[in-house]
Amino acid sequence: MRAAAFLCGCALLLSACSRVGVPSQTHRSTLVVAVPAEPISLNPLYLEGELGYVVSELGYSYLTNYDAHGNVVADVAAEVPTRANGGISHDGIYITYRLRRGVRWADGTALTSRDVAFTYRAIMNPANAVPSRYGYDQVAGIATPDERTLVVTLNRPYSPIVSYFFGGDSNYPIVPAHVLARFPNLNHAAYNEAPVGSGPYIFTRWARGDSIAATANSGYYAGRPAIDRIVLRFTHDSSTTVAQLMTGEVDATFFADVTRITTLREIPNHRILVTPVPYFYALMFNAADPLTGDRAVRRAFALAIDRRALVEKMTHGLYDAGTGMRGLFTWAFDPHAGNVPYDPRAAGAVLARDGWLPGLDGIRMKGGHRLELEIALRTGMEIDTGFATLIAAQERAAGIDVSLKQYAREQFLALGGPIAQGHYQIGLYGYQSSYDPDASWLLACSQRGPHGFNVARYCNASVDRALSEASASFDRATRVRDYRFVQRQILADVPYDFLCQISEIDVIPSHLQGYGPPLLSPFTTVAGWHFRL
């Protein structure tokens, strides 16, 4: 499936109103955006997920990025390396980047290939507590023949390299060598609170616990952005976000709480856009746990879930229960692979064959033990709580007693937290994936937690081989074939149960122009935003 087909009809305009009167000069020059959490740093090497993209897209530059249709486009690179233009060697081992002229750091220093090489080495430096080295660990070496040329040598052919190596699928943009190279590690550098970047905006003020302000970069290589100032306001919960949108304390929010869509549609002088993105909700089953390590238990648990009912009730049908794995496999998604069906009777039969028989209260028992499972989830997420509560009720029909345990958002996926350390049975999480369908980060044996994001601790040799073969090929048909095999195997093994594909809900002022439908981040197009007067 082509990227255009994946995004066909993605940006659905649900409501639009014209602002009454002419906005004030202050409002024309400032955009206040509600964000759900405060970043731990303004050095993007220490960030991940949604906040990582916010900081990176505002204040920094990449080698390449994605456009709204999933095409890889040049950023600091003068062109995207391909085999056709000689940027990718015939054997797939050497990737050559030539940098565009005129890119400068906010302090006026030229951005060169040395900065890219330094950033790579900072990511790989074990003294730097970066959250992931995925993709970058495929690099064997870096050469900088001159200031505008970078040659990347790979350990093996790795087709996602352009999208991962300071590209659109990476949280990591380029950071300045001339500022940071003198430090043995960057963990506590003052730079992390007052960075020098090369992006469309310059971070000018961080009011802890309240907001971050960024001012348009007049030296940005693509031209100074039209909006003078962007303020990121930390709102922490969706009710506060909605209230501040209503009062005008904030102007916009991205990835709004879908459970509040009815109220969001009532906000005057705003429009709402709904875009299916490479995100998905899934249950993760801890394969190291005695109960969820049993494939029969996982299969039965998945069979007992009515995904369409969950999505209709909690998301008003704006998320898609039929395409959960498309959130992971994007253009390699196989619509014919199917889903685990909703069949509580079949769930009971699977459990009975596994020795779990109904007790007096209907809960199944085996060897004198009740089938009791616990779902771990994040606090402050109404959709998470709603999904988990409905799932617990549905599981009881299959004879499974489910309880819920909530953790603070910051703790849930932290390196020392319950998921990474394997102190859970079932986890519920809304995943942000990459646009390239390389799913090794979630499924490969080498990525098992706590050393990677395969927190289910799933390991299947045939899946590993298919993932490896797919990522080594630059032929799309070969990759699609391999990923189709992986999808079918995941449906059989059920290390994760894909509940739905997520749609991004963006609430923006009616007079904001230049906003492009998000692929991975709404801030990808921030340099082109402007107000219609």
Can you walk me through this structure?
Strands 1, 12, 16, 17, 18 and 19 form a six-stranded mixed beta sheet that branches. This protein has a domain at 37-234: 3-Layer(aba) Sandwich (D-Maltodextrin-Binding Protein, domain 2), CATH 3.40.190. It has 18 helices and 21 strands. Helix content is 27%, strand content 22%. It is an alpha+beta fold and 533 residues long.
Feature tags:
533 residues; alpha+beta; D-Maltodextrin-Binding Protein, domain 2; 27% helix; globular; disordered N terminus
Give a short account of the largest sheet. Answer: 6 strands, mixed
Q: Quickly give the CATH architecture of the domain at 37-234.
A: 3-Layer(aba) Sandwich
**Could you say which overall geometry the principal axes of the C-alpha atoms support?**
globular
Low-confidence stretches: 1-27
Binned, the helix content reads 25-40%
SSE topology sketch:
Elements lengths: L2 H4 L5 E4 L9 H5 E6 L13 H11 L4 E3 L5 E3 L19 E5 L14 H12 L14 E8 L2 E6 L6 H4 L12 H4 L20 E7 L3 E6 L12 E6 L3 H10 L4 E2 L7 H4 L5 E16 L9 H9 L3 H9 L10 H4 L14 H10 L3 E2 L5 E3 L2 E2 L1 E7 L3 H15 L4 E7 L1 H4 L5 H4 L4 E7 L7 H4 L17 H12 L3 H18 L2 E14 L2 E2 L16 E2 L2
Parallel strand pairs: 2-10, 2-11, 16-17, 16-18
Antiparallel strand pairs: 1-12, 3-4, 5-7, 6-7, 8-9, 9-10, 12-18, 12-19, 13-14, 14-15, 20-21
Helix pairs in contact: 9-12, 10-13, 17-18
